[in-house]
Amino acid sequence: MNIRKLLAVIVAALLIVSSVSALAEITIGVPNDTTNEARALQLLQDNGIIELKEGAGETATKADVIADGIEIVEVQADLLVNQLPDLDYAVINSNFVLDALDAGFEINKALLTEAEDKYMPRANIIAVHSDNVDADLTKALVAAMKSQQVKDYIEATYAGAVLSVVDEPTDGYDASVDYDALKGQKIIIAATPAPHAQILEIAKQVLAEKDITLEIEVFTGYTEENRAVDAGDAYANYFQHKPYLDEEVGQNGYKVESVALIHTEPMGLYGGKQADLAALGK
User: Fold this and answer.
1) 199 closest CA partner among 109, 245, 263
2) In this structure, is the dihedral angle defined by the CA atoms of residues 110, 119, 216 and 80, taken in order, positive or negative?
3) pLDDT at 123 over 50
4) What pTM was computed for the model?
């Protein structure tokens, strides 16, 4: 082989290596918990970015991904925003984006957003101990959270990043409840910061009109809220969707049940190193 042909072969090989390396640099972060990872991967598949193996559903993981030149990076859901600058993209729950914005973190609008048939079944819930499902205090809490006041607050505050799922809002109260008998009682509710604790502040005002105190205990993780309700350290919690609760109950045997659907948070694909979808050929 003469020198010219050898150089041509080397150049061609370098171009191939360069091309493969460039493709491999496209990293997409997804939550590493079961329900949210599958949901994030479905968003990517629905938009033609990846394919999932046949049969991959609500428990899909990166092992089910079929995609050339894309690396799926599993990250704890509440850490994705912090990891975003080191990733090309990340699929993030809108509540974590809201937390980040509240903390002064700069993040662009979602480049892609989850379809309604994906985010509606994952509406966030009020959950209580199984012994309290039918209690008047629970009914009072649910009526306050499903009030027109709360619905209006969600719609006015979050610009679509959080959506109320309450179709028939109340005036804040349940006609079947003897509120005089509940005067002076306190509800301790475990919640994550944004939007949950913020929304609860509106319900707190509604309940205060009936001399019921809503004490909001803010948690920054996702491991203590169900445990607190199960142990009786909190009366209720507000931070999760039903698939997550079902998983927690199945794994830990918690006596915790959903009593109301309040809002949903569409997942979105956000740009980190990339400002648009061009790197994905979109």
Assistant:
1) 263
2) negative
3) yes
4) 0.77
